[in-house]
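Recap from last week: sequence in, structure out.
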Amino acid sequence: MAVTSAKEVLPPVLLSGSDFLVHRSALPPALDSTSDPPPLFDGTTRLYTSYICPYAQRVWIARNYKGLQEKIKLVPIDLMNRPAWYKEKVYPENKVVKKTELPWLGKENRESIPIEKMVPSLEHNNEVRGESLDLIKYIDSHFEGPALYPDDPNKRQFAEELLSYTETFNKAVIFSLKGDSLEEISAAFDYLETALSKFNDGPFFLGQFSLVDIAYAPFVEQFHPLLLDVKKCDFTSGRPRLASWIEEMDRIEAYKQTKRDPEKLVALLKWRFMAN
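Predicted structure tokens:
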């Protein structure tokens, strides 16, 4: 029996690298299995990313916001046809995701998608680091630019609470996609609405823009059109702070540069999460 590859399963329109983005000018093409590696560990700082990965999008936003476009080079990877050299030479310490951790995927997709947590990773000072939340903190503390982590101890404590909730939030929404109840989805977005009322010195989670906003933005971005399409649910309805937060995020140029095309995003997410 022939094995179906992810490349064959995924609709071709979703495999075109930077074409997945709203703003695509001057972005490098994604490197695939036919691409040569960059000159590794030559002193260049590189962010290995993917144009379709929300975890990688977090780090891309942080890099943009701190004005590091010239200091941290983007190296996009085609996750559906990834180059062998990336895992072998760049990031061999990739954590492997067990298939049991992906119960929301259809069986066919679970078998065909890459299960390594491939991106993001950051090549800096002859070392490669991974994990998106760790990387946005690392970039904030090791590079110049506007601070993304507050000095206020109360805000720092609340930031850690919110960061620790990110995966709970993501899983609550994803697990609810195939069910009839909106309870878990509502509870997840109610949590964000309440969190946005904690500080009154700005429209963001900690009042001022921070790494917490960066952590949630890619996922809110993908869940908004997906839930409208699949559940006919607008989670901003009755949640004015969340609606205002989305509007404010859309004014952040560093984030706008990374936004995905909503129609392609919905098609990708339905393939990924809704297949039987």
